Every structure is written in C-alpha cells, then in structure tokens.
Automatic annotation (TrEMBL):
Organism: Lottia gigantea (Giant owl limpet)
Protein name, UniProt field: DDE Tnp4 domain-containing protein
An example Gene Ontology molecular-function term: metal ion binding
Keyword Metal-binding recorded: yes
Keyword line: Metal-binding
Cofactor: a divalent metal cation
Length: 99
C-alpha cells in the first residue's frame, strides 16, 4: 500500500501531491516530511479527515485546519455547524473525484 497527501484548489485543480510512503507511515509523518507547511501562506485554509492530527504543524503559519464536525462523533449539531460542515463537504467532493 502506498500513501500520498493530495491537495486541490477550491475549484478542483490538483495543487499538491506528496511523495509516496509505505502504508505504515502515519498521515502526520507524511505531512512532516513533505514541504506542505512551507507552501502554505498565512490565512490559508486546508481540509483534512479525522485522524490527520496536524493542526499544530500549521499554527505558526496561521493556517486554518478544518476537520468536518460530522467526523468527530458528535450526536447533535448546531445550525451554524451544519452550514459550516456543508461548505467544507462541498469542497471535499473535489478530492474524492481526483482520487
């Protein structure tokens, strides 16, 4: 199994592909070994799935790491949270199409 980190613009264009790593490499290790953090600008926003425990890697760059709430095992969501997650999910579909 090979693992890569894939990035895309909000419009669906592939903007980043990391080197490939073995299946036992954690998502965090792949991000740490890549130059993804250096490529981000202050104010950028990235979206990740549950399990990508990488928020701290981007803090110094003032990059927002978005994890949809519905991946966090929440039973009740507020209206604001549902709207926010819907916006995130509409972007996630681009990544799913790419992969």
């Amino acid at each position: 199994t090979a693992k890569v980190v894939v990035g895309a613009t909000p419009g669906g264009l592939v903007s980043y592909v990391s080197d490939a790593y073995g299946g036992s490499t954690s998502d965090r290790q792949i991000v740490e070994r890549s130059n993804l953090v250096a490529l981000c600008d202050p104010g950028d926003s990235i979206m990740v799935y549950k399990g990508f425990n990488i928020q701290d890697l981007f803090t110094s760059k003032n990059v927002t790491v978005n994890i949809p709430t519905f991946f966090k095992n929440k039973n009740r969501l507020s209206g604001h949270t549902i709207m926010k997650d819907g916006k995130i999910a509409s972007k996630r579909v681009h990544i799913e199409r790419i992969i």
